[in-house]
Write a structure and sequence with these properties.
This protein is mostly helical and 314 residues long. 64% of the residues lie in helices and 5% in strands. The chain has 13 helices and 5 strands.
């Protein structure tokens, strides 16, 4: 135990009457904000309106929360939650699964594309970097909650999760900080996607490249990290539930990358036609107040001023 780093941080930052401000909630909110900034930039860079990008915010938040919650309940503790379904709604008691969040996002983006007449694979690409941000941030929050801990180990960087041991009624144990492994893995995936986007030509990059890379890199990394994580279910199995759930998305990513390099379709191919066919909602208040929109309105002469100029010329 002398070689362990002792982690005994209270997950609650402060109490506000009956409410609590937690590190996890603060990290989760920051993740949503940063992810949305990246998503918005990706969409507006392609020519879509800010209003359209903002429309997905509610879709995305609900997809992540509902998908992650149902994923945890059905993948990791089905007997407990199916015997008492009302407890599925108890989000505040914890229990979110990243695989469920991925499924929720994939379904939400499909419905969003159908509603606004967008190209599905392109939207998956534009959501890849925000997804990497989310994957990293959630595990950082798990670390502050002292949950989803690693297996016992004697490595020099082992951590003793005091609150986890107390909750489980176990003696002090040195463990892998597997949450931090996944946190840094998420940052690595984010960096790889950023470099692929930049050096791949941004809007000229092959369609499907970022989505395929995310599926391959994240779920391959997730499969490896699971060897260092404590079993959450399937204790007698060779692989963890997280590893079983990572096989299909990893395989899908490999197939997608194979298609990407075989076809090499530029993302901006047919851009004008797609933008014309896509349903862009009316400009948001932020767009109306932006300097660019004001300069456009000032630079575009009205019909009346044009008619006056013609009369003066005569």
């Amino acid at each position: 135990m002398d070689n362990c780093f002792v982690w005994d941080i209270d997950p609650v930052i402060m109490h506000l009457g009956p409410l609590q401000l937690r590190y996890y909630g603060l990290i989760f909110a920051s993740m949503l904000y940063i992810g949305f900034i990246i998503w918005r930039k990706q969409m507006t860079r392609a020519g879509y309106s800010l209003a359209l990008a903002e429309r997905f915010l509610i879709w995305g938040v609900l997809a992540v929360l509902i998908g992650a919650r149902l994923g945890h309940c059905l993948f990791y503790e089905p007997e407990r939650y199916l015997s008492d379904p009302i407890t599925i709604l108890y989000f505040w008691k914890g229990g979110l699964a990243s695989h469920g969040a991925t499924i929720g996002l994939v379904v939400a983006m499909f419905l969003f594309c159908k509603k606004y007449n967008l190209r599905y694979l392109e939207v998956l690409d534009r959501m890849a970097m925000p997804s990497a941000v989310g994957a990293a941030a959630v595990r950082f929050g798990n670390f502050f909650n002292s949950e989803i801990v690693g297996r016992p180990t004697d490595v020099p960087w082992a951590v003793d999760f005091v609150r986890y041991d107390a909750m489980m009624g176990e003696p002090a144990t040195c463990r892998h900080p597997s949450q931090l492994y996944e946190f840094f893995m998420g940052l690595f995936v984010l960096l790889a996607l950023y470099l692929a986007d930049r050096f791949g030509g941004k809007e000229k990059r092959p369609l499907g490249l970022l989505a395929g890379m995310f599926l391959v890199l994240y779920f391959a990394g997730r499969f490896i990290v699971e060897f260092f994580k404590e079993f959450q279910t399937l204790e007698e199995s060779t692989l963890t539930m997280g590893q079983y759930l990572s096989i299909i998305p990893f395989a899908a990513g490999v197939l997608l990358l194979g298609w990407v390099f075989a076809k090499r379709v530029p993302t901006d191919e047919g851009k004008e036609a797609r933008l014309a066919n896509a349903f862009n909602p009316p400009p948001s208040d932020a767009e109306k107040a932006s300097p660019a929109s004001k300069s456009k309105s000032k630079g575009a002469p009205s019909k009346k001023s044009g008619a006056k100029n013609k009369k003066r010329k005569k």
